[in-house]
Amino acid sequence: MNWDRVEGNWKQFAGKVQERWGKLTNDDLDRIKGKREQLEGRLQEVYGIARDEAKKDVDEFCKSI
Prior knowledge:
By secondary structure, the chain is mostly helical. It has helices spanning 3-8, 10-20, 26-32, 36-47, 51-64. The N and C termini lie close together (7 Å).
């Protein structure tokens, strides 16, 4: 799926994002507001992963929805 679609319908996809990455809080999701770079950055912080890994995880998420 195209990230623009996710960003445009963030409220609908936020639940799926939280299912996939359970450590993200509602406050995190509110701050991210559908911005891919914000999501990747928050994943790096919360999960302690590298930027490339966060990007790959988000890519896989997009393919799965």
